[in-house]
Design brief:
It contains nine helices and 17 strands. It is α+β, with helices and mostly antiparallel strands.
Length: about 375
C-alpha cells in the first residue's frame, strides 16, 4: 500500500534513510529535524513495515517569464531487503499521478548515481541540466574591486540582514535562466545551513551594502572546490577567487559552472525534468512559438495527458482526433522537445527579455545545492 507519511513514521523513515544512503546520525538528525516533512513523503508499506519511501517537495519552476507549480523529488529509497521488486517504480508512478491531480505542471530530480538516469527515463524524465568543472588559477589573483569579501563557516555565521541580501541576490541570479527551480527563503536558509555544517565555507562579496557575488567552497578529500559560483562582474569574481586562495591555500581551484545541455562535452549531467501536465505546459510554451505544430502525445503513467494538441497563434487546442503530419511524442520526447535547444518545437521560439526586448538565451540550469 502507498500512503502519505504520518508523524509516527519519522523514526522508521530515518532508519530507512540510513539504510539506503549511509549518512551519519548528525546529518540525518539535522535533515529530519529541519527539512523533512511527513506531508511531502510517500511510503510503500507492507503489513509490518515501510519498505520504500520518496519525498516530493513543492517548488516554483521558471520557464521563460512564467513561474509554474512544480516539485523536486528526492530521497527515493528502498530497504535493501526489498530492492528490485518494483517498490520505487510504484512510488514514482503514484507520485506522478498524484501530482497531476494536485495541479503540478512539471517535476525534477537529481539522480544520485549515473546509472539512475536510464532508470528515470522509464518514467518520462529526460536530462535537462548539465554542469562542467572550470579550473581557475589562484596564483595571479590581484583583484581591482571595491568588493569586501566576508567568509562564513560552521562557527562564523552571517547576520539576518546579510542573509536576506544574499538570498535576494541568489534568487535574482537564478531568474536569469530560461528554465530553473526557484528556492523560497526557507529553502535557501536550510541549504546554506546544511552546507556550512557539513560541506564547507561560504565567501560573499559586498559592495555599497549589496551582495555582488558568492562562492560556496566545498571540501572534497584534500582539495576544495567551488560548488556554486555567482557574481555580477569579473572584478567581483577575482575578489572571490583571491579569498578562495586565502581560505584554501591552493594554487588552483575547480568550480562547477552551468553548461548548456546541447553544448560540446566535457560536461556532467546533473538533473532531469518530467512534464506532469501536458496541456498546462503547452499553454506556457505556446506564446513563444512563431509557427504551428500538432502533437500526438502518449503517457503510459498519467493517462489524462493522452491526446492530440495543436499549437497555433499562441494558443493550444486539444483535438478530438488525430491529424496527418502530427508529431508522435511520449512524455520523455515531449520534455526533451521543450527543454532543449533547436528541437522541432523550440527552434520556432522567439525568446524576448521583457526588461529590454533583447534576445534571451535558452539556458536551463538547476541549482546544485539541491543535491
Amino acid at each position: 500500500m502507498i500512503r502519505t507519511a504520518q508523524e509516527k513514521d519519522t523514526d522508521e523513515l530515518k532508519q530507512l534513510w540510513k539504510n539506503g544512503f549511509h549518512d551519519g546520525d548528525e546529518f540525518v538528525d539535522f535533515y529530519f529535524g529541519g527539512r523533512y516533512k511527513s506531508a511531502y513523503t510517500l511510503c510503500y508499506e507492507s503489513e509490518t513495515d515501510i519498505e520504500a519511501a520518496a519525498q516530493v517537495f513543492p517548488y516554483q519552476m521558471r520557464y521563460g517569464e512564467v513561474e509554474l507549480p512544480s516539485t523536486y523529488i528526492l530521497g527515493v529509497v528502498t530497504h535493501e531487503n526489498h530492492r528490485r521488486a518494483g517498490r520505487a517504480g510504484a512510488l514514482m508512478a503514484y507520485s506522478l499521478q498524484d501530482q497531476y491531480e494536485r495541479g503540478i505542471v512539471a517535476t525534477t530530480l537529481i539522480p544520485q548515481h549515473g546509472y539512475l538516469f536510464a532508470y528515470y527515463q522509464k518514467f518520462g524524465f529526460t536530462e535537462t541540466f548539465r554542469a562542467s568543472k572550470v579550473v581557475y588559477a589562484l596564483t595571479d589573483c590581484s583583484p581591482h574591486s571595491i568588493a569586501d569579501v566576508h567568509v562564513y563557516d560552521r562557527e562564523n555565521r552571517m547576520t539576518e540582514d546579510d542573509f536576506v541580501k544574499l538570498y535576494l541576490f541568489y534568487h535574482d541570479m537564478y531568474k536569469l535562466n530560461f528554465h530553473t527551480l526557484l528556492k523560497s527563503m526557507d529553502d535557501f536558509r536550510f541549504a546554506v545551513e546544511e552546507f556550512l555544517l557539513f560541506e564547507g565555507s561560504l565567501c560573499v562579496a559586498f559592495a555599497s551594502g549589496n551582495v555582488k557575488g558568492c562562492a560556496f567552497l566545498a571540501k572534497e578529500t584534500e582539495q576544495q572546490s567551488i560548488k556554486e559560483f555567482l557574481y555580477t562582474d569579473t572584478e567581483t569574481r577575482d575578489a572571490l577567487l583571491k579569498q578562495a586562495r586565502d581560505v584554501t591555500g591552493q594554487k588552483e581551484i575547480h568550480a562547477w559552472v552551468p553548461q548548456s545541455i546541447d553544448s560540446t562535452p566535457p560536461s556532467q549531467p546533473m538533473g532531469m525534468t518530467r512534464i506532469v501536465n501536458a496541456k498546462k505546459m503547452l499553454d506556457v510554451v505556446a506564446p513563444y512559438m512563431q509557427g504551428s505544430i500538432t502533437l500526438n502525445i502518449t503517457d503510459e503513467i498519467v493517462k489524462e495527458n493522452n491526446g492530440v494538441y495543436k499549437i497555433e497563434n499562441g494558443c493550444v487546442t486539444r483535438l478530438a482526433e488525430g491529424m496527418s503530419g502530427a508529431y508522435d511524442m511520449d512524455m520523455q520526447t515531449l520534455t526533451h522537445a521543450l527543454f532543449h535547444k533547436d528541437t522541432v518545437i523550440t527552434k520556432q521560439f522567439q525568446i524576448k527579455d521583457t526588461t529590454n526586448g533583447s534576445a534571451k538565451s535558452f539556458d536551463c540550469y538547476m541549482n546544485l545545492m539541491l543535491n
